[in-house]
Amino acid sequence: MVTAHNLSKRFGAKRVFERVEVELGQGDVLLVTGPNGSGKTTLLRVLAGLAAPTGGELERPHRGAIGYLGHEPLVYRELTPLENLALFGRLYHVAEDRERIGMLLERFGLWHVRHERVAAFSRGMQQRLGLCRLLLHQPTFVLLDEPFNALDRDGAALLDRTLAELAERTLVVATHDPGRVEHLATQQLAFA
Amino acid sequence: MTYFSDVAALARKDLLLELRAKETLPAMLLFVLSSLTIFHFALPHGSGRLASLGVLWVALVFTALLGLTRAFVPEREQGLMDALVLAPCDRSAIWVAKTVAVLAFLGVAEIVALPAFAAFFSGVDGRMVGAVALADLGICAVGTLTGAMAVAGRARELILPLLFLPLVIPVVVGGVGASIGAGGKYLGFLALYDAIFGLLAWASFEYVVAET
Asked: Helix, strand, or coil here: A107?
């Protein structure tokens, strides 16, 4: 369960958002829309626990249950996909992580490059690996910030299927292009 | 046991990153050797052991600073601190692992620097090696914490030396004191510094990387 009441965030004198109300349970999908710089990313960071709200109340699951994918894929470029996922599997205490890592790499079309450094990957491949990292520990509260960025047609189709599965959990997606997610959304929040 | 395996996984990652990127350690080695070489020619002939010991400790502190400046570069440039702090492991494990990695780099730099010091200036005895080892612990513990603080700030290249250098003045005092022959008292002082500042850094790291 994720509940935000009267949530606000400021950076000094600059107001990012104010009086945001969110109430999400299992199976809820919140679509956050708005132009660049409207506060979508900041809201997701606050909901994930990466930034503190300036005001209001926020209840969210514990850290281990949260999956967050921001503008960066959040993987080490000098490591291979296997090394990255093994590291995060260890830090998230994922049981039987080898099987799960293999399954995710297969699913996101990265198994054949599992021993290559991420630095050599295209941005789209890095985004796919970021999605593997996000899903590794099977989070119940998932936050995705512009997840279709840099993905090619196949990658986007794969993400469509993944989002449909994630919609059974609690999902927040921020995008300035809501077309791909609108059909899944149970709630919408539009920033001006 | 989970805590230590988290630390091991994170430290292994830092060592692997350096092994692949080869950015920090070569720079530290080049810096410490260049510094000692420059001082070898810059110090007037017959300056004495006391002056050369001062040179050694200045070189070591600034070599450590160079390594610390690079310590959080992958996390800063790729936003990876977000991924690390979201993980359900104890956040202090990130500090311990980073300290271990910086300590390893500094140790390697000193394996080269101490013989170079012996060749350029004067001999190195066991007490000096002990003082350097104890100083390294304090330098890396405090430096990793201040490095993490600097990552969060805007003028990070400026903040790290401003925070770090005043905090390691006692290490230089203890290190020089132990090296010139006042042994046990200064070695004890360095061990006490390590214990106090190590504990403080370990306990406060959680708040340094906490949401802002």
From this structure: helix
